[in-house]
Amino acid sequence: MEFRQIVLCLLLWVPTAFSQSISNEDAHAQMDDLNQLIYQYADKAMVQISELEQALEQHSRSDITRLRLNLLKCEALMELGETKAAINVAQMGDAQAKLLRLEEARPYFLNCLADAHTSTGNLKVALPLFDAAIRLAKQYQQPQALVNALRQRGQIDTDTENFGAAIEDLRLALDIYPDLSTQARNWSWPPIAYIYGAMGNLFYVSGDLKQAIHYSNLAIQSTDVEGKVRHVLVRNAAKMHFDNDDTARGEQLLAQARAMMSQLTGPIDIASSYAIIASIDLSRGRLESAEQLTQLASSTFKSTNKKTLVMRSKRLLAQIKFAKGEPEQALQLMQEAIHQGVELKQFYDLVYFYQIMINHYADTNNYEKAFEYQQLQYQAQNAATDRLNDARFIQYKARLNQHDLAQTQAQQSISQHSQDKTTQLSWAYSIIFVLGMLLIAILIWYLINRSNQRYLNDPLPIDDALPTNQKLDAMLNSAKKSNSPMSLLLIDTGNIRQVDLPVMLDELKEKLREQDLLVRFATDQAVVVLPYTSTNGAEFVGEQLTSQIKAWQPDTPVNIGIASLQQFDTLPSMVRRASVNRLTKRKNVDSNNVL
């Protein structure tokens, strides 16, 4: 009888133990699929996340698995429009990542948290969070987090008409995207169609319809474009084609977008799509359809207490009423929208609202009223600009604080390293004390010999300082005259032994091009001048040199400053700017992966 009980227990234990041993691997495979499903069908993804949570309670004890599932939950909540819940999950996830010392997970939760604050218009909080996420993603080799942060920050810059910064972020995201599959552990990443779509939207807003349509087509033709992703891309592409006077293609895409409405399940997604299609119908003169869709959207926004969206739906309905020749109802709706905009401090929306009122009163020859709303528009524009400037200032201040912190940590690390070396060499000081007279004699002989041979055995890679200075000036002048880029790297050699420095500089020269110039600038600094090289190219060269220098100072960080040539620059000004903006990058000995 006892033998049968033992056999039965073993039969019950073996499947359980086996399922627990593979549960983490299976869970991550499911989460890879969930990552795509979140952007396509967020409601279905949320159901599967709940089921997986229950399964993990029974079969898994992995902190990483649970943490990643919480991250996907945060992303799903954002897709469903549950902003407050997403903020709670993101804050808890970031705190848990700190507690578990899983720093690589932090940029993902910071991305989700920043996205949530962006959706509420709180750019003061969102922008520094995106910067922190980008910094951590670079530090811990997380291209998936980096791509998502660059995409979302690029969208903010597009919305605030900071087009130069937006295109830089989005192009970098597209360049990095092929490297996502090389990441050691998957966490979360957006579909490439969203990055193409963001690039298309950037060109659309900036007025380049040809490029906007090009990137829109790339987005639609991407793999795994289903559900909400496809609907959003097709709907936006329809508007682009209408504005490009390609009515036939626009109508074709709009019909596809209408047909795909059934694939949207979240009430906010459905209502938002109704409102956007209504705006397209308004521009096409289909006023009855536009009014019906706007009323449906407004009803959903009211029931879900989305005050900002309710305000915008009233503005859209007012525009429809104006187009239908019902100015009294339109003015009433506009007054309600303006009142809500003032309460919610949505200054960018107010600028648009006031413009509608200005146009109406100008068309009806009521110039006094038009001027009154023009003054209100001016005030709203100033308030919007002040808010954006405050957000940018806080973002810039956070960057400076982080830079100062990095420099302080580097200095502390160098100081600690020096103290350790002093302790390790304490035995040498004892020998010096015992053999003082002998060592003094040897030292005197060494100094005399070095003085006599200084010019014969100069360790510097440049024999004559004057020709080198002339060559540097010539390179600067040539770059200015030809209006070609030129960058400068400032290398801290203070942690390299003087006897090793010439050998190291020779090795660095082998990494450079023939036209590049490497010189000693000071006792503890070297300068690399890179003609025809932009800032991005200089950063790439800096990363290559970092791995080479690291071999000579394995215990201390490598400090390289970067500066790019400006029209009125001199060599000293470039060196000063490179010194101020010196970058400290920590690299593992066996890692040469550059994000």
Overview of this protein structure:
This protein is mostly helical. The protein has a domain of 119 residues: Alpha-Beta Plaits (2-Layer Sandwich). The protein is 73% helix and 5% strand. The chain has 24 helices and 5 strands. It has a 5-stranded antiparallel β-sheet, with helices on both faces. Helix 2 packs antiparallel against helix 3, helix 6 packs parallel to helix 18 and helix 15 packs antiparallel against helix 16. The radius of gyration is 31 Å and the shape is globular. 36% of the residues are buried.
Q: Provide a count of the helices.
A: 24
Sheet having the most strands = 5 strands, antiparallel
Number of strands: 5
Main structural class: mainly alpha
Helix content: over 70%
Give the terminus-to-terminus CA distance.
64 Å
Strand content: 5-15%
Q: Which whole number gives the mean pLDDT?
A: 83
The SSE string, one letter per element, is HHHHHHHHHHHHHHHHHHHHHEHEEHEHE
Task: Please describe the topology of this protein.
Layout: H1 2-40, H2 42-59, H3 63-79, H4 83-99, H5 106-119, H6 123-139, H7 143-159, H8 163-176, H9 192-205, H10 209-220, H11 227-243, H12 247-259, H13 267-284, H14 287-303, H15 307-323, H16 327-344, H17 347-363, H18 367-424, H19 426-434, H20 436-453, H21 465-481, E1 486-492, H22 501-511, E2 517-522, E3 525-531, H23 535-550, E4 558-564, H24 571-580, E5 583-585
Antiparallel strand pairs: 1-3, 1-4, 2-3, 4-5
Helix pairs in contact: 1-2, 1-3, 2-3, 3-4, 3-5, 4-5, 5-6, 5-7, 6-7, 6-18, 7-8, 7-9, 8-9, 9-10, 9-11, 10-11, 11-12, 11-13, 13-14, 13-15, 14-15, 15-16, 15-17, 16-17, 17-18, 22-23
